[in-house]
Amino acid sequence: MQELAEPATVPLEAWINDERVELRPPIEILLLPTAAWHCADHEFALAGFVMPKSDAVIEVGDRARFELRRLLKGAQGFADALESNDPKVVENTLKALYLCLQERYGITYEFEPRTYARDWQLVRFHHEVLDELQGTCIDLALVFAACLENAYRDPLIIVVEIGRDDIGGTTIQHAVVGCWRSSSRASEAVIRHQTKMRQWLKAREIVVIDSKGFPRTKRFLVVCRSHRVRRRGRRSWKTILWPTPLIL
Length: 248
Fold this sequence. Notes:
The protein is of the alpha+beta class and 248 residues long. The chain has one domain. Helices cover 33% and strands 19% of the residues. It has 7 helices and 11 strands. It has helices at residues 55-71, 78-83, 89-104, 126-132, 137-150, 194-202, 227-240, and strands at 8-11, 14-16, 19-21, 28-31, 36-38, 108-109, 120-122, 134-135, 155-164, 171-180, 206-209. The strands form 5 sheets. The chain has a 3-stranded antiparallel beta sheet with strand order 9-10-11. It has a two-stranded antiparallel sheet with strand order 1-4. It has a two-stranded antiparallel sheet with strand order 2-3. Helix 1 crosses helix 3 and helix 1 crosses helix 5.
């Protein structure tokens, strides 16, 4: 598994008491590399990449406490923030983490490692993003979601379809991060209903930020291949992420 670079189809084996049991009919399964996310209809698997107890994420939290103390009066740590009655406590918690990543890490927005199979991509783990100082929108969103989990907050990763590649017809998506003001109201791992998301956003139950803001890349790398797709993407962004996301 560690050496697997591309998806591979392998036969499934069953063993009982150290003896192999023949399966009838034979079953084949598709194995993906360790860091692969199958993004076509397997959105729920993305949660497995959010690791709040990663040493790299804990280090971000430790450093972000200094920002939190400056932003939130009386708070020494994120547990204090959780108990605070300050009406902007959630925004200040997000801001402390955001500014820490922006100012203490020189992260560059970069494309995912190149692959050749459809409907999946390689995801950088948190320590890779923070050690190599690079990541895609999904890598950065995962890091930020893990930081929120480590700060006792309930995050969401919102994947927005912004268009299609005119050449291959591949769906172009962008990932942003949401945070519940209180505990999560979602009853399932994946929320597919835009209406429900818009209601929560309109009621200001969720704060949304774009993690592409804390890398040092000056201009967001455009993966769309035509001006038409880019214009359509901007319209989708304004529609789905309404009201305006929090920009720090």
